[in-house]
Amino acid sequence: MKNRRIKLLRNARRKFAQSSKVGQKSGSGILIPVIDVNTGKQITIDYDDLQISNKPLPKTLPEPLRQRIRKLYKIISDVHSTNLQGFENSLKTEGHPEREVEIFELIAETYKRFILGRSLSFLKRKEIYNSILSLSFGVPAKNIIEKCRFISVNDILDLINLWKEISKGVITLAQVIEY
């Protein structure tokens, strides 16, 4: 594969590197599936070929975007790994925070609809949320099923179908731009 300058819009290395079942080892690093935003096709790239963006980070986000962040955070706050301030700060580091908020709104909607009317333990809710995050990265269902310990295969399949319904054609969090 020719050497390309690739900009990662979401920190996929952390997510994919945490699971050896997702990334495959190659000679020089971890191979990760991403969507080329120019072609819309999934490609596999070696993490070592990624270039860090030099785009300056915003000091603050626009107030309408912050309101959307607060609204979606209320839905995921019980299972998300950081507080509201940390969540907002992490979105500031994204190349396109508006796009990330759109995706997290889909994640929050999927989570809210899936848990509605169910009496679930924290561990089950957390596993459901993590599974939705994995789906947003394009992780194959097989890998999600292998990781889940607290929710059934049927529930995972229902969750996958709900994610597909809600996210209809949205490009996942792991995206690349070639320039």
How is this structure best described in words?
- Helix 4 (97-115) crosses helix 5.
- A hairpin with a 5-residue loop joins strand 3 (30-36) and strand 4 (42-46).
- The protein has helices spanning 12-17, 63-76, 84-92, 97-115, 122-136, 141-147, 153-167; strands at 6-8, 24-25, 30-36, 42-46, 50-51, 175-178.
- It contains seven helices and six strands.
What labels describe this entry?
single chain, 179 residues, alpha/beta, 2 domains, six-stranded mixed beta sheet, 6 strands, 47% helix, disordered N terminus, disordered C terminus
Write the layout of secondary structure elements.
Elements (H helix, E strand, L loop, with lengths): L5 E3 L3 H6 L6 E2 L4 E7 L5 E5 L3 E2 L11 H14 L7 H9 L4 H19 L6 H15 L4 H7 L5 H15 L7 E4 L1
Parallel strand pairs: 1-5, 3-6
Antiparallel strand pairs: 1-6, 2-3, 3-4
Helix pairs in contact: 2-4, 4-5, 4-7, 5-7
Listing every helix as H and every strand as E from the N terminus to the C terminus, the arrangement reads EHEEEEHHHHHHE
Helix content: 40-55%
Which residues sit in consecutive blocks of at least 5 with pLDDT less than 50?
A: 1-27, 173-179
The shape, in one word, is: globular
Total domain units: 2
By helix and strand content, what is the structural category? Answer: alpha/beta
Number of strands: 6
